[in-house]
Specification:
Oligomer: heterodimer
CATH class of chain B: Alpha Beta
Largest interface: A-B, 39 and 29 residues
Strand content of chain A: 15-25%
Structural class of chain B: alpha/beta
Helix content of chain B: 40-55%
Number of domains of chain B: 1
Strand order of the largest sheet of chain B: 3-2-4-7-1-8-9
Strand content of chain B: 15-25%
Largest sheet of chain A: 5 strands, mixed
CATH architecture of chain B: 3-Layer(aba) Sandwich
Strand order of the largest sheet of chain A: 2-3-1-4-5
CATH superfamily of chain A: P-loop containing nucleotide triphosphate hydrolases
Order of helices and strands of chain A: EHEHHEHEE
Structural class of chain A: alpha/beta
CATH topology of chain B: Rossmann fold
CATH topology of chain A: Rossmann fold
Helix content of chain A: 40-55%
Shape of chain A: globular
Number of domains of chain A: 1
Distance between the termini of chain A: 12 Å
Number of helices of chain B: 5
């Protein structure tokens, strides 16, 4: 699994499309599905592992949302933290982690 | 001094703890934890308790110092045989800026914290500071919040300049961002 992380609009998807063949068939947007993953009552790590076993060429994309002022709203704050922890787990599972900033992908793992 | 930056949930605390533990074991130093969070209510209490649990049994002596950080030195017996982990600069900066219902100027906050940290850094054998990356959400904030963001940005820059090592954690991966060598740009 390839994990691509970065701020909003930094070119994560373009990076994936440029570098990997048929990337769009393998991209999974972690943030959009995070609520669903947390809501399943299962260990998020197991869900990710299952997805990788189903698609060995999986590309997980996620926004680095933890880099702002801590939200006053408790739910928003908790979500940010949970997604951050999930990103740590995804990175640990990934064969390669790329951080994209202004279109430049830096291989950090 | 070692500076560890990172966003929320990015694993900066765990990395900073690992770092100070390695150094303290190698140099046989006593480990202090400089806790800067002010407890206003149940939310902060929960965070403080969670972090206490994380640190339990790891050999830290906790010093609560939510403002006037230099005063922590009074509670540290032998500076030259000690290492301290300060967590977190974003709380300390907020506590120094928003005091007793008043707002202290950005410049005063930056100067006070910079001077006090320099003093602590001089007295202690090793100092590890955890700070937050609060700069990248692109949300427009009011002028007071912006002045806080600027103050923390300046403090982080000062710390990074002084520090021997600067690390940024991204999804649990520590990046050495003050090293001279080029990072591995793929594209």
């Amino acid at each position: 699994m390839i994990f691509i992380i970065g701020g909003y609009s930094q070119g994560k998807r373009d990076y994936a499309n440029n570098r990997f063949k048929d990337a769009r068939d393998h991209i999974f947007y972690l943030d959009d599905r995070a609520e669903e993953i947390f809501g399943q009552g299962k260990e998020p790590l197991d869900i990710l592992k299952k997805m990788i076993s189903e698609d060995p060429n999986l590309i997980v994309i996620s926004n680095e949302i933890g880099c702002g002022i801590v939200p006053a709203d408790e739910e928003a704050r908790a979500f940010r933290k949970k997604l951050g922890r999930l990103q740590c787990k995804a990175a640990a599972l990934a064969d390669e982690v790329i951080r994209v900033t202004c279109g430049i992908g830096v291989k950090i793992k | 001094m070692i500076l560890v930056l990172g966003g929320s949930g990015s694993g900066k605390s765990a990395f900073a703890e690992k770092k100070i533990k390695e150094i303290s074991e190698e140099k046989n130093l006593k480990m202090y934890y400089l806790a800067t969070m002010k407890v206003y209510g149940a939310q902060e209490e929960k965070i403080v308790n969670d972090h206490r649990k994380m640190r339990a049994g790891k050999g830290f002596v906790t010093v609560e110092q939510s403002e006037d950080i230099v005063k922590c030195l009074k509670k540290i017996e032998n500076g030259t045989r000690s290492a301290a982990l300060l967590e977190c600069m974003s709380n300390l900066a907020a506590n120094e800026m928003f005091k007793d219902g008043k707002v202290v100027s950005e410049e005063d906050v930056v100067n006070k914290i910079s001077a006090e940290i320099s003093e602590i850094d001089k007295e202690l054998k090793e100092l590890v500071i955890v700070s937050n990356n609060v700069f990248d959400d692109g949300v427009p904030y009011d002028e007071i919040t912006l002045s806080y963001i600027r103050a923390l940005g300046k403090i982080n820059s000062f710390l990074a300049k002084t520090a021997d090592e600067v690390w940024e954690t991204v999804a649990g991966i520590p990046l050495n961002i003050k090293q001279e060598t080029k990072s591995h740009v793929v594209f």
